[in-house]
Amino acid sequence: MTLKNNMSNPTLPKQKIIPFIHDGDFFFTKGVDAFYKRKFDLALKFLNKAKDIDPSEALYPSQISIIYTEIGAYHAANQILNEVIASHGDDYVDSYYLIANNYAHLGLLNEAQKYATLYMEKDPDGEFYSEAEQLITVLDLTLEEEMEYFEDEDDLVMYQETAFYYLQQEDYVKATETLQEAVELFPDHEVFSFQLRYARFFNGEQIAAIKEEEAVLRSSPEQLASRFNLATFYYHMGRNEDVKKVMATLFGVYPLHQEQALKVAIGYTLAGYNEEAIDRFKRLNKSIVKHHVDYYKYYCLSLYQADYQAEALALFEEAKRLHKSLLNQPAPWENQY
Predict the structure, then answer these.
(1) Neighbour tally for 196: CB within 10 Å
(2) CB-CB contact of 201 with 171 (8 Å)
(3) Mean pLDDT score, 38-42
(4) What is the pLDDT at residue 127?
(5) What is the pLDDT of residues 267-285, one digit of tens each?
(6) What is the pLDDT of residues 108-120, one digit of tens each?
(7) What is the DSSP string of 150-161?
(8) Hey, how many other C-beta atoms are within 10 angstroms of the C-beta on 20?
(9) Are 190 and 196 contacting, i.e. CB atoms less than 8 angstroms apart?
(10) Is the pTM of this model over 0.70?
(11) Are 225 and 192 spatial neighbours (Cβ–Cβ below 8 Å)?
């Protein structure tokens, strides 16, 4: 018996080759499997891939938030969960409990109590109802003892988040107003003072902001925030050699705090040390810093200036998907900083 090749027989239909395309559930399953094996970086890659394939599915970002909770990135986790609520409303009510749990880890007990209560009100038969009930019991006991302290702490977070929002939006008038209040209420919280000088500089007080920051750096030479502010101020004043001098003091300095490390990377971009800047950007934990518009702006700029134009273009497209404020803005290399 002779086997015939179908391809040589014109009377038989040709077989269509159907490519196997993975859907979002495939990558979600792989991500969950990696999560249980505590391979968090791999889990995030799979889950972000699932989210890219099906951005309307709330389950994928919610699972990403759980990974952030597991690694201690509680603020980043809550930002994602708030985005889920904004997009899906009460269709994914578990988000309220997860937010409450993250706030409890952060020690923000009033916020934790508020979201746990919301969860119980919205889903009396919910999967996490008993956990939320237990959480509220613990919170009630703690808040009775420390109510005044935690009210102040909640106010602190409110000012932090409000100032961060206005700075991200480059609304320096409102940022200045918010930060002036914050400095008066929390004089020991130095970050507000650095942010206030930054906002004032872009709100028309360039000379005063520079003089004050130089005085701070003279009295506290170890301050990274002062060096970052001055590098930024000098750059916008056209004092490029002074920018290089400031950044020269940071060679070999690798801050563990991600926001400080981000500022160092931005500083190298401003100084024109693009390869060093790119190396610093690559070292960052993207899951934490991607919520900063400046992460994308200056990473794109350093890539473009180092002749990695394709990578810069791809990164800027990603930035516009995450930060809608960039949609109507020119690319960083088309803009004068």
Answers:
(1) 22
(2) no
(3) 85
(4) 87
(5) 999 999 999 999 999 998 8
(6) 778 888 899 999 9
(7) HHHHHHHHHHHH
(8) 5
(9) no
(10) no
(11) no
